[in-house]
Amino acid sequence: MHRPALLSVADRVVTLRPPEAGNRADAAPDAEDGRPVEALAQGPSLVAPGEPDGAGEAADLRDTAPGQGHVLARVREAAGAQRGKLGLALLLGSLAVGSAVGLMAVSGWLISRASEQPPVLYLMMAVTATRAFGIGRAVFRYAERLVSHDAVLRMLAELRVAVYRRLERVAPAGLRTTRRGDLLSRLVADVDALQDYWLRWLLPVGTAVVVGCAAVGFTGLLLPEAGAVLAAGLLVAGVGVPLVSGACARHVERRLAPARAELATRVTDLLTGTAELTVAGALPARSRQVREADGTLTRIASRSATATALGGGLSALVCGLTVVGAALVALPAVHDGRLAGVTLAVVVLTPLAAFEAVTGLPLAVQYRRRVKRSAERVYEVLDAPVPVREPATPAAAPGSPFPLDLRGLSARYAGASRNALESVDLTLVAGRRVAVVGPSGSGKSTLAQVLLRFLDARAGTYRIGGVDACELDGDTVRTFVGLCAQDAHVFDSSIRENLRLARTGATDGELRDALARARLLDWADSLPTGLDTLVGEHGARLSGGQRQRLALARALLADFPVLVLDEPAEHLDLATADALTADLLTATRGRTTVLITHRLEGLDTVDEVVVLDAGRVVQRGAYADLAGVDGPLRRMLERERRSVPA
Ligand SMILES: Nc1ncnc2c1ncn2[C@@H]1O[C@H](COP(=O)(O)OP(=O)(O)OP(=O)(O)O)[C@@H](O)[C@H]1O
Q1: Residue 110 is assigned to a structural domain of this protein
Q2: pTM, whole model, 2 decimals?
């Protein structure tokens, strides 16, 4: 049997493999153990659940409990194995800027000495050093870029995987109120922004300190006053100027990442809802909102650029003043004979090159602030409470999932004030078909989430083949229980590839069989390119009924021992919905099925009907028995009959 663990997940979220098991098994499931995930879309908070989480090699990126320091300290800790490379990058960067300083100093000396017209051999050493510094500058810079980017991109790759895995763990139960554009922005732009912490903050600052100290030391050896002037100039340019430009951009930098997320959210909404917005006449208003968000981002970026320009201008001014200051203290020294005439050029020109190490620091300070906000947003995702705890050591999967048993089960979403399910009992044995009905919001889909272990029980037990589901890996549970969701995702690919998601190596015969059972084969055969027909984004080239039938065929092909069908006929017109329900009841005959629906038509063929209301089971039994007595099902039936046009 081929039962892909992820088919059910793929039906709810487009996802990769879930992380390896790793969460505390003994922790009592408690949906209130952390900040609700909807807070992701709202604002900064670094509350962490405080539980270990096994997301493989990147786990260290997020397991630092909050309060252990600054968010940037966590970014630094994430360097992990790349620390050695970053140290090497610092050395290479310092050698590159040091070579620039050396080049300036030696060439200054060379020109001065050459003017005295000594025998050319006296100059050979300086000529060679000039060449070496000139070549070294480019080579060291290239090597530094190579090493630092290699280290940082590796870190980013791990971090992005960690963020993705966390999102995957939080989805689907925890993502109902988060905004897609915002998540996308966190996953892409904010993670990318973290590279600047190393590339544009730590390494430039480290290089500035190393090269600045060396240049001051060297100049001080030649002439102590000149060393002091250079030290003062470097301090003003490297500390004072960044403070001034940083103060100008303080508020701007913190607003940059949220403004970028706002624009991403609005653009995503606009693109995905263009058809609906056009029909509702709301497109111009939404386009205006996008333009406004874009305008806000542009204003923020331009204020940030102003601060950068101010920093650049002030640095250049301080550099010029330092060169003049060095000349002013050096000239009397030459006059007094404390400094050789040929070294005057060295003392005056060295500051010019040494400032290369600090001119980027105003920008570095801005980057640091920007990175801090992005890091907060990334760590909010990494620290978001997960609705399901995976066991540290998963129990062995039972040979058969039967009986699949829920006893007194209650479940609650993170941040909710009441249980979505309350003391629910349900037993499934091989071949049994149960319909779960009830008004909207009664907890039907929540039951599906619990059965698939997308949401943990708050009280009661869920056992699969005698094993507590909490002791099983979530993936293992989903090899036994599969879902065909009401909003099943159809990929922008061919019919064949959409089906093969359920069973990678399925033959055309098996695909056709699944399509036939979902009553879609005649339609597929009538298409000019048959199974190779492209279905469009979200199945845009299919009708609503065809989309649901394709999802049903996929679920049938996956051959789950227990199949949960969550409102498969939702959003369809009554005739199509009833035809689809009838077909799927035929297709699932003899297969353990939980059919979640609020249409009662055709349910006389299932073994048991469970009626939910406000999360509780208010009635259960055979359809004919329930329909024959006064009670919730009978009232639903009467309402349904009244609503059907004569
Ligand atoms: N991710 C979530 N976070 C918080 N509350 C949720 C979440 N999902 C559902 N709920 C709440 O849980 C309750 C049960 O919702 P559920 O989706 O299970 O109902 P349902 O019977 O499937 O409704 P429908 O027939 O409309 O799909 C509702 O009050 C709903 O608002």
Answers
A1: yes
A2: 0.62
